[in-house]
Amino acid sequence: MKKTLKDIDVKGKKVLIRFDYNVPLDGNLEITDDKRIVSTLPTLKYLLNENVAVIIIAHLGRPKGKIVPEMSLMPVSIRLSELLGKPVKFFGGDCISVQSKKAASDLKPGEVLLLENLRFHYEEEGKSKSGERDKAAMEAFAKELASMAEIFIQDAFGTVHRSHASTVGIVKYIENAAVGFLVEKELKFLGEVLENPLRPFLAILGGAKVSDKINVIGSFLNRVDAIIIGGAMAYTFLKSRGINIGTSLVENDKLDLCVELFKKAEDRRVDFLLPIDHIITNKVNFLNKDIPNDATVKTTLDEVIPSGFIGVDIGFKSIDKFSRMIKSAKTIVWNGPLGIFEIGEFSKGTIEIAKLVAEGTDKGVISVIGGGDSVAAVKKAGVDKRISHISTGGGASLEFLEGKELPGIVSIPDK
Ligand code: AMP
Asked: Of 45, 108, 121, 262, whose CA is between 20 and 30 Å from 21?
């Protein structure tokens, strides 16, 4: 068991805490969803009650080691200050500048300081200026951050599957470290699913890229009783079976791997479900997520997609087939939409599956949903409150459920 915030005497001390403040911003740099900030309030209030001087570190977007003013954490500092009802100190530019370090050293008990976007430093992600892996640079950066406080709390679940300065680096220099309330909750919930899932255990995987999730599928086949593959991922699997998929998204270099995964599923007697019909179109704008007015949209009769057409959602027969499997499951893990759900016409499959998972949960099924798009989809379906656990880390929750060790958790000392 990892040390948690309540195992450490924080009273009156200076604490460095890693949060997930990677919030969506609109063109005017207004925060469009502050859920991630709101979710840190219980931890912050606990720390302030203990008269702690709180230094927060976080990242926003993918600035790739450069100062990108549009990815500043300034809007987060303003929103956080409103929510806490007290000032949040913030200095733009550089989280380890002389000014930031002075602010950290002058910080009094009961005060809050938010440091600028960690990823303005390439060292955060363990890289050198040229993009090569550079552990020494990462450690030097971590040491600078660590020098600001006496205790480190890891509370950003979304990044603990990465070996970054703010996940593994800092702990080398601050031994007094623990996980925060949010990470503790994730570990408790996902740990129970990993160790003792109620069976049948079903995984539903969708989304666009097979390459991102192929390893997950391989390890899930060791754990689950059934797996449903939807979204663009399904077409690579269908093509590997010799089925015509028109011009749907496909990863041709993964076809052999798909064949191996079918074989593994068969050997392990895991039900492996693919769509048996599709919603297809001849034109779609992947980037803007819209369809031109002159596009033709139709449903296929079976799994075959005619030439010139792209699969964009699962069809009604597939929904029906998947629904029977969902209704029989006792534990469901879901990551990735089953179609281009951002486009209303192509969201039906994902929305129906979300409703079925929620109905199951109402009857006692344990459901875990992770990944930004799947979470957005259950919200769109209006069933987010009926899911057992919505994980704050899509990649991290999948890696955890695969049975992999998460570097940012391993680095935290045991109780
Ligand atoms: P991922 O990040 O891998 O979970 O992928 C999420 C994205 O997959 C969403 O933006 C969906 O629009 C997209 N997606 C789902 N199904 C399809 C499909 N059939 N064709 C293209 N993109 C898809």
From this structure: 108
**Residues assigned a catalytic role:** 36, 209, 372, 395
pLDDT at 287: 85
Q: 285-324, pLDDT tens digit by residue?
A: 988 889 999 999 999 999 999 999 999 999 999 999 999 9
- Helices and strands: H and E segment counts in the chain: 15, 15
CATH node for 5-181: 3.40.50.1260
Which token pair is 262?
């079918």
What does pTM read for this prediction? Answer: 0.88
Ligand 1 residue neighbourhood (C-beta within 6 Å): 206-209, 212, 231-232, 249, 311-312, 336-337, 339-340, 342, 371, 373
Q: What pLDDT does 372 receive?
A: 76
Which residue reads 């993964």 in tokens?
A: 254
The whole-chain average pLDDT of the chain stands at 95
Q: Ligand 1 centroid vs 402 CA: distance in angstroms?
A: 21
Nearest to 174 by CA among 139, 140, 148, 146: 146
Q: How many CA atoms lie within 13 A of 311 on its CB side?
A: 37
Contact 151, 177 (CB under 8 A): yes
The per-residue pLDDT for 414 is 96
Ligand 1, atom 5: closest residue by C-alpha: 207
CATH code of the domain occupying 189-402: 3.40.50.1260
Nearest ligand 1 atom to alpha carbon 231:
16
Which atom belonging to ligand 1 lies closest to the Cα atom of 343? 12
Domain spans of the chain, in order of start: 5-181, 189-402
Query: Of the candidates 160, 123, 142, 46, which has an alpha carbon nearest to the alpha carbon of residue 407?
Result: 160
Angle, CA of 400, 406 and 410, to the nearest 5°: 130
For residue 89, give every residue at least 6 positions away whose Cβ sits within 8 Å of its Cβ, in sequence order, or none. Answer: 77, 103, 107, 111, 112, 113, 114
**CATH topology of 5-181 equal to that of 189-402?**
yes
